[in-house]
Structure formats: C-alpha cells, structure tokens
What does this fold into?
Amino acid sequence: MSNLPRTLGELRKSSFTEERLRSRRVKDEMRENLVARLRQGGPVFPGIIGYEDTVTPQIVNAVLSRHNFILLGLRGQAKSRILRALTTLLDEHTPYVAGCEIRDNPYDPLCRRCRELIAKEGDATAIAYISADTRYVEKLATPDVTIADLIGDIDPIKAAKGGHELGSEYTVHYGLLPRANRGIFAINELPDLAGKIQVGLFNIMQEGDVQIKGYPVRLPLDVALVFSANPEDYTARGKIITPLKDRIGSEIRTHYPATVEEGMAITTQEAWTRRNGHRLLVPAFLNEIIEQIAFVAREDKRIDKRSGVSQRLPISVMENVISNAERRTIREGSDFVVPRVADVYAAMPSITGKLELEYEGEMKGADTVVREIIRAAIARSFDKFFGNGDLKQVVQWFELGGEIQLAETASNAEVLKGLKNIQGLMDKTADLKLADNNKPEVQISAAEFILEGLHAHKRIGRSEERVFSAGEKAPKRGTEREFRREDLDEELEFRKKNRRPFN
It folds into this structure.
C-alpha cells in the first residue's frame, strides 16, 4: 500500500480516476469482479461445498442483476459464510477521505465535513484506503434493535459542544448502515427485526438514501444489502413484512449436503483435527459413521424437521471423537491417535444439544434417540464397507457362547489380545485396507467397527455399563462394553421383566 496515492491530487493522476470512482457503485464493482472471476473459470466461492450446481448459480445471477438478496435456509447451511464470502468480489483497496466515518468517495463526498474539507484543502486533502474485508458490516437482528442502531440519530451532545443546530449534519451519530457506505451490509435472521425497523430499510433499498430523525439530513448511500433468515422464523418469532420482501431482488434457498460425500468434505474442511503433539489417523469408516449420523437424524421422525439438523453437528462430533481418542492415547502413553466407534458414543454430548425432538422423541429421551441414531448410522456405514461380506465365522464364534468385554480403561495390548481370540475377526480387518494396519491402534479400531456393525444389524448382542475397579495406583472408572450372542440379550431382558434370576 506504500505506493498508493496519499492525497487527492495524486489520486487524480492515478488509476483511481474520477470517472471510474464516481460512476462505479458497489454493486457495479461486485458485478465486474464476478464477471472477471467467471471468465477465469475457478470456483466462485472457494470453500463453499455442495452448492456448485444449486445455490451458487442463483447468487451469481443475483449479483449480475445488481440485486439485494436474501438467503433462506435452516441452521447450519453456511448462510453467514456465503454472505461473508461476498467480500472477495470487492476491490482490494478503495480510497476514501481520511477520517470520514462513512468512508466518503473523494470525488463525490456525502457528508458536510468532507465537502468543506475538500473545498479548503483541495488537492492536498488526505486520502486513506479500506480493504475488502473492512467493507463488510454484519448485524444480527434482535427485537431490541432500534432505528438509531441501523440508521443513526441526532447527538445533542455534539450539538452542544460544537455550537451547532440540531438539524446540522455535524450533529449526526451514524448508525451501522451509513458506516457500511461503499460496502456490503448484512443482516442475519431478518424476521427477528421488529416490523417498524424493517420499514426503515425501505428508502435505502428503493431510493438509495436514508433520513436521520426527521431532520433535513439525507444520505444517498452506496451499499449492497444482503440478508439471511430461517424459513420457520416467519411464523415462529416474527416475519419479513411484505413491502420489504417485495423490495428484495432475489430469494435464494440453501440446503443441507445432498450426499454423504459432500457432507464428509465439509466436515473434513471445518473440523479442528490438527492437534499438537500426536499423530492422527481417522479411519474412513469413522468419517462415514459421523456423517451418517446427521443424515439419519434428518430422516428420523422423532427429530423436528422445521428446526433441522445443523451441519455443525458432524463437525462437533468429529472434534469430540478425536478428543476422546486423544484422551485415551495420553493415558496409554502413546503418540498415535486412532478414534474408534466407542468414541462416537462418548461424543453424545455434542449431538443431544443440537437436536430438537418431537413429542415421541421427548417421551423416549434424547440419549435413547441419539443411541438409536448412532446405531443406524453404523449399520449404513457397515453395509458400505462390507456389503454382503462373509462374516459367518465371526458370528458363529459368538453363537457358540463366545463373549468379550472391552473396557475403556484397558490397555491396547489387553484389548487386542481379547480381539484376536475371536475366530476370523482380525482377518476381516484387512478388507478395510487402512493405512498402518499393522499398528495395534488401527487393528483395534477396525475390529471394533466390525463388532459394532454386526450388533447394529442384530447379528450379535451388545451391552454397556459403567464400571469401577481398584487399580494399583488409583481407582479406575469407565465404560465397559460386552459383545455376545444376540439371543442372550433377549433371554436377559425376559428374565429381567419376570424378575427371575439368571444362572
């Protein structure tokens, strides 16, 4: 930025010509930069996955049409991220009159201060620059937002200190909208904005100016207005009033990932997986299970469809799963983190808080519903990796009375020793073709996936309970899972209901 013009005189001799800056409004600027990007052929919004053939073309059309637009979609559909990505369509540096609160165009100043300053200083008027990121102003709509917050107000203290009349432009305290002049102004959750405040947006959208507190101070702002909203908010908490909705050029619907692969790509991109100090390997089947949880939940009748299942759910689950595996690795004294299916159950706190249950789900309880969703997700993933694979040998071992307990506090060596006793199990782990499949952590994760998959399809039984055991140095508390033959589960449940002892 050191070689950019620093005075109005230098600006006139540079590429920032008066003709260009005076006639090129922010929507024209976005349109020109978008056209250049389309000609280059790269992604319009890098990092936005799954919208290439649906949402993105509609946004492109809205920008090319110089529309104010709104994104409608359920929570966790990247609405805010898309709005913030619009700054990539702005110029890298934009000149304005130094010290101006509303970043006035040096060739066409709006505020009285800038007009008088340029008249006095002439070509010596100082010029400053704003970057693309600082030309984006965002406001979360809440019922307590006032016109003064958005548009501005007359400040009597400024009037008293400066000896100005209340109607003078020098007494104006600018709101967020004027401060977004020559940039993008975004309002999230628009229906939450009170109706009378939405009315205050009419003039800027239709006439391109605002009026402050009834005084003859009018500002023909240069701003692109964009909004986001949840469709359910129209009836739940508020609504977008019809006259304002009529002035929004394009209404664009967002959606959740259409395929599990798209969801996995988003989760991989967004989840915090780079942990310091430990090497990490997340098996492919675990990525699949975590993403399938969101897809199963979106289909489950016990989950409120109007609320949706946010894409933040698999992201949070992934982070929690890795953290639980990291905790086990630290306790083991190892430096190789490999999550297991058990870690998905341990990550339930990152799921329950993100689901809004219908009446049937509330009667069952969040924990029960989530466990059933996880089990269904495991079943789907198991089908993908094993399909009609021959696992009769493993199932037969359990049918002949075989049992295995997997304690959370057990060492890798102890767990692996027990798993190797199951006939044919370790041979089947090779079918997953995992990296480092000779390491105990990977072998355990793969073997456990097979057992959990067989249980999900009700081919073997499984129970889980909290255990307490006195160790040599300190007591150990943790979860112990037991895998056994499926019909034994039914017998245990029958005897429990009839209060008969089990021998």
Observations:
- Residues 375 and 494 are 22 Å apart (CA to CA).
- Confidence is low (pLDDT under 50) at residues 499-503.
- The chain has two domains: 8-253, 260-497.
